[in-house]
Predict the structure.
Amino acid sequence: MKLSEHFNSSEFACKCGCGGMDNGAGVNPKLVQVLERMRQYIGKPLVLSCAYRCPAHNAEVGGVSNSQHVFGTAADVQLPEGMTVDELAQVAEKCGADGIGWYTWGVHVDVRGYAARW
Ligand SMILES: [Zn+2]
Ligand SMILES: [Zn+2]
């Protein structure tokens, strides 16, 4: 199901194969909005390495139990070619992300309702 101009609900589904949120239900609309703004700002496809995680899969990948991923409010965005992690994080900031995490593979963004940076 199309959630925004460039994002489909399947991109937000749990990667463990449980089918969690693959119909788009439960994916936070504000998260989709932030990612869509980032996509349009950058002008290149954004690959989500992970968005929703069911509690079992979250535990499996070592996520903290109250991870935003479990609530459908977070996505891990892979670094697009030609960008640095700092640049991608700046775009996330401009596009209204609440939580932003810097990683070697890219940036974690979430819409937890208050600012968090790590
Ligand atoms: Zn799952
Ligand atoms: Zn994350």
User: Anything to note?
Assistant: Residues 69, 74, 76, 108 surround zinc ion (ligand 2) (CB under 6 Å).
